[in-house]
Amino acid sequence: MPSTDPAKPASRQALSVLFSSTFAFTVCFAIWTMFSVLGVPLKAELSLNETQFGLLVATPVLTGSLIRVPLGMLTDRFGGRIVFFLVLLVCVPPLYLMAHAASYAQFLILALFVGLAGGTFSVGTPYVARWFAPERRGFAMGVFGAGNSGSALNMFVAPLIIGAFGWAMLPQVYAALMLGTAILFWLFSHSDPAHRVPSDVGVMQQLSVLKDPRVWRYCQYYSVVFGGYVALALWITKYYVAEYGFDLTLAAFLAMIFSLPGGVLRALGGWFSDRFGAYTVTWWVMWVCWVCFFILSYPQTQMTIQTLNGPVSLHVGLNSAVFTGLLFIVGVAMAIGKASVFKFISDDYADNIGAVSGVVGLAGGLGGFILPIMFGALLDLTGVYSSAFMLLYGSVCVSLVFMHYSYRHDPRAGTELIEPQ
Question: Which residues are registered as beta bridge partners of 303?
Answer without folding.
Answer: 314
